[in-house]
Amino acid sequence: MSDSLDLTKPLQDAIAEAEELIANAPFIRTEADRLEGYDYLSGRIRMAMQMAFDHDLDRPLFINPTHQFSRQGLDNPDAIYFNAYLREGVEYVVRGRRGTSADLSFQVMGGAYSATSAATSLMAFDDRELEIADDGTFEFTYVAEPGAKTLIVREVFNDWDTEERGTLTIERPDTLGQPARPLTEALLRKKYEVAARSLTGSILTWFEFPKWFERQEPVNTLTAPRSTPGGLASQRSSIGHYELGDEEAMILTVPRCDDASYQGIQIGSDWYASTDYETHQTSLTKAQAVTDPDGLIRVVVSERDPGIANWLETTGHRTGSMMLRWQRLTRDLTQDADGPTVEVVPFDDVPKHLPFHTPVTPEEYAARIAARQRSVARRMIS
Q1: How many separate domains does the chain show?
Q2: Which domain of life is it from (predicted)?
Q3: Strands 311-313 and 296-302, how do they pair?
Q4: Who contacts 236 (Cβ-Cβ below 8 Å, separation ≥6)?
Q5: Are strands 137-143 and 221-222 parallel, antiparallel or unpaired?
């Protein structure tokens, strides 16, 4: 046997550096925060390895780098994300079968998110611009324009219980049918180096990203609906961050929007990632939420159970991110007609702020969680 090639050394060093970044994150307050950070780190390692080793520019495919075991960038619990790397000037053929999700969108990104800059959206559209056959199949060709690096696909679900996933593939006609490159020491070394850079880069990026946007806003407020930075043409979002005491709750009120196929609300952690949306209710779509008779969705954000269906659980996070999304819009939104409002109140006063309060028993709430678990198991991939 020959001596070790030491190919993994860059990744080993990067994991050690990433662990230091996690352990010294400025927002860690409790042991639970620290442990959550190490769980977050496992997802970052997983993502780095996947993005470095699962892709081949000569044989493109869609990779799912963000899911319940690999959270990043305030990932949307209602979305499945797919990424495919591109090479400028190359022709790609994308084929699929449209599922029944609320939204299916495509976006070409130039560059990548980093700790100092955001990626650039070069093109964005949803499936309304595709020719979809009666059986749900579609196909389109794209020649990667100058600067194009990644094709991102989002399949977004409004009703977790009934909407079904579609299928999706991407290929290069000029390399189809050719064998993959043989493994070489140089190729493997490069992949481990890419994984190393991706690991530390992603952690540094998502430490900085919320500072550019949501942390510019006063705490316990939400912005008016606006175009999502680097997002889709038919998407609007409202962002903010919260800080609640043990005996406080936030009442978040937003009009139900039936001019968007998808409308969702979520809270996240200071790691700028989703929190457990499978065994806790940390997000709601308009299909999952109860809409009051006046057309408003009233949500309570709190640690303690207010005994209502529209409870967003903070799961031990006294501080965190908030985001509302509207997708596949048929009109623009305004703050007066569509925007959210928030009010922080004593927890014991919550019923006074819910004019159509309908109690939910612990058993009924447990049934909601069971339905979430089944839906995540059916829909998500890892």
Answers
A1: 2
A2: Bacteria
A3: parallel
A4: 225, 226, 227, 228, 325, 326, 329, 332, 333
A5: unpaired
* Greatest alpha-carbon span in the chain: 75
Residue 312 host element (H or E): strand 311-313
Q: What is the pLDDT of residue 109?
A: 94
List b or e across 145-165, with b for residues whose CB sees 16 or more CB atoms inside 10 angstroms: eeebbbbbbbbbbbbbeebeb
Whether 225 contacts 335, CB under 8 Å: yes
pTM exceeding 0.85: yes
Helix extents (H) in the chain: 9-23, 31-53, 185-212, 335-338, 362-379
Complete edge-to-edge strand list for the sheet that includes strand 103-110: 79-85, 148-156, 103-110, 120-126
Contact yes or no for 4/189 (Cβ under 8 A)? no
SS3 label, residue 15: helix
Cα 191 to Cα 82, 152, 195, 201, 334: the distances in Å are 20, 21, 6, 15, 46
Yes or no: say if 262 and 80 are a contact pair by the CB < 8 Å rule.
no
Q: What is the DSSP track for 177-223?
A: TPPPPPP-HHHHHHHHHHHHHHHHHHHHHHHHHHHHTGGGSPTTEEP
Same domain? 198 vs 125: yes
Decide if 3 is inside a domain. no
Q: Which of 214, 201, 228 has the alpha carbon at shortest distance from 268? A: 214
Tell me the three state secondary structure of residue 317.
Answer: coil
- What is the phi/psi pair of residue 71, to 5°? -95, 140
pLDDT, position 1: 45
Domain end position, chosen among 209, 229, 261? 209
Cα–Cα dist 75/173, whole Å:
32
Q: Which two tokens stand for residue 101?
A: 């999700």
Chunked mean pLDDT (size 10), the chain, 382 residues: 78 98 95 96 97 94 94 96 96 98 96 75 93 98 96 96 96 96 95 97 93 90 86 86 96 98 97 97 98 98 97 97 96 95 98 93 97 92 64
Extract the tokens encoding 126.
């949803």
Question: Residue 307: which domain range?
Answer: 214-379
Final residue of a structural domain among 160, 187, 209: 209
Give the pLDDT score at 231: 66
The answer to whether residue 2 sits within a structural domain is no
